[in-house]
# Entry
Amino acid sequence: MTADELAARLGDLAVLDVRTPAEYSGARGYPCDPRQGHLPGAVNVPVDELLGRPPEEVRERVGLPEGAEVVAYCHSGSRSAMAVEALRAAGYDAHNYEGSWHEWSQRADLPAETS
# Structure
């Protein structure tokens, strides 16, 4: 999924930020990113809360019905790629936003939130 595709579908699908809570809130991120924070409407579930868990625990943590369409992102697409595998095993229609926050933060035309 590209940044433009994701931006056009915000609000129509579940967006899962699998970074740390500090990255998600904007309190601490990578210096290569011009902005800190998260995608609007994204829910923060750190990747370590998904990996190695049985599908029912993943569904419980994510809080979405089985089969829901989910896009995961992190800083550069690596953690979210691992999360997508766990999400698919739990029955979600999961996609990785490979550009992740590193790409999103560089585009001033894309919305962002902090918490």
User: Anything to note?
Assistant: Residues 3-105 form a domain with the Oxidized Rhodanese; domain 1 fold (CATH 3.40.250.10). The radius of gyration is 13 Å. The beta strands are 14-17, 43-44, 69-73, 93-96. The helical segments are 3-9, 21-25, 55-62, 78-89, 100-105.
